[in-house]
């Protein structure tokens, strides 16, 4: 019976992280599609982001107080500062740059640049000694090759168009002027660069989050600090950009749905799960699941929003995903080698 319980526990601990990360990427994909529709409806995306994190921070503060209030005396200014940095990188800068990119390029292209997050996270993790690379080993070579593949795929997707792939569409929402290839080339490149920068900020957030979770492993509080910081920063930014209060009103429409979905799932739930997973696994593991969002957004954009799909998007996306999973394979190879070495050392003793 004990062995059965141990086996079940092992299966759950193995399956739980990937299942939760798939949920996170699904919530991100849904938010991306809703953002695009809300922009088309005339909503200022900066206001949507401010509302999103205001809602998330309120929910998380309640949960943190209810679940983790007995541990709040352990908070230090160092941990609070890391919470501020998480909000700045993973919330404010990431969201504002990414949201701005949606004004210049399609959801598929903007999301595809997010596929570089594992590569950036990998490099930052090496710099901050959270990840190692044995260049002479099979796993180390796989990490390097996979990183180069992912970068090359993102560049191919951004700068190569190719033929249009004809697909069926449900036409749930028809966006006007959403074909990025009908816009000036410099708009398309600017949108890609903004999304590129947002990926760097997100990778920095994962690194800081991992350090914070090591010091203070209370994930509701960590997520609440991150979202509260972001809500203040994005709120001020949105107020500076738009002081017309009529633009801040939410009715029973796509704008309210966007705020509720993104606030509850993409910020409230996801930031908590990410905080847990970077501690349970590591930042690179969390970032590895970013390509899934590209697939979901590409499918949603094509079949629901009537976005056009091009050969360059497919080839670049496949190349990027292939590179990222080569990195994941290399990482698992190194982990297995390290474990075997450790077992041999124990037997020698």
From TrEMBL:
It is found in: Membrane. Its main location: membrane. The keyword Heme does not apply. InterPro entries: EamA_dom, EmrE-like, WAT1-related. It comes from the Eukaryota. Keywords: Membrane, Transmembrane, Transmembrane helix. Belongs to the drug/metabolite transporter (DMT) superfamily. Plant drug/metabolite exporter (P-DME) (TC 2.A.7.4) family. The chain crosses the membrane at residues 45-66, 78-97, 109-130, 142-160, 189-208, 220-240, 252-277, 284-304, 310-330. One of its GO terms (molecular function) is transmembrane transporter activity. It is a multi-pass membrane protein. This is WAT1-related protein. The keyword Transmembrane helix applies. Residues 19-158, 190-328 form the EamA domain. It comes from Aquilegia coerulea (Rocky mountain columbine). Pfam families: EamA. One of its GO terms (cellular component) is membrane. SUPFAM superfamilies: Multidrug resistance efflux transporter EmrE.
């Amino acid at each position: 019976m004990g062995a059965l319980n141990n086996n079940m526990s092992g299966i759950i601990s193995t399956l739980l992280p990937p299942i939760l990360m798939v949920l996170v990427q699904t919530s991100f994909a849904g938010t991306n599609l809703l953002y695009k529709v809300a922009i088309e409806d005339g909503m200022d995306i900066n206001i949507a982001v401010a509302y999103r994190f205001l809602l998330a921070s309120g929910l998380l503060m309640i949960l943190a107080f209810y679940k983790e209030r007995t541990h709040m005396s352990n908070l230090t200014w160092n941990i609070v500062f890391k919470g501020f940095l998480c909000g700045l990188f993973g919330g404010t800068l990431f969201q504002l740059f990414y949201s701005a990119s949606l004004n210049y390029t399609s959801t598929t292209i903007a999301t595809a640049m997010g596929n570089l997050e594992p590569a950036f996270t990998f490099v930052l993790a090496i710099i901050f000694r959270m990840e190692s690379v044995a260049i002479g080993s099979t796993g180390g070579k796989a990490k390097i090759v996979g990183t180069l593949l992912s970068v090359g795929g993102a560049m191919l997707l951004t700068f190569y168009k190719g033929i249009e792939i004809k697909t069926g569409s449900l036409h749930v929402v028809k966006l006007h002027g959403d074909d990025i290839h009908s816009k000036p080339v410099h708009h398309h490149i600017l949108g890609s660069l903004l999304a590129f920068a947002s990926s760097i900020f997100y990778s920095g957030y994962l690194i800081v989050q991992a350090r914070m979770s090591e010091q203070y492993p209370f994930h509701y509080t960590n997520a609440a600090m991150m979202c509260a910081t972001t809500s203040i920063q994005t709120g001020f930014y949105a107020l500076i950009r738009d002081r017309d209060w009529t633009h801040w009103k939410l009715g029973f429409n796509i704008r309210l749905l966007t705020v509720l979905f993104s606030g509850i799932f993409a910020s409230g739930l996801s930031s908590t799960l990410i905080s847990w997973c970077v501690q349970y696994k590591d930042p690179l593991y969390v970032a590895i699941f970013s390509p899934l969002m590209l697939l979901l957004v590409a499918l949603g954009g094509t079949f629901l929003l009537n976005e056009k799909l091009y050969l360059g998007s497919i080839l670049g996306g496949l190349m990027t995903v292939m590179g990222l999973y080569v990195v994941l394979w290399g990482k698992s190879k190194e982990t297995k080698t390290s474990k075997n070495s450790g077992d041999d050392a124990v037997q020698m003793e």
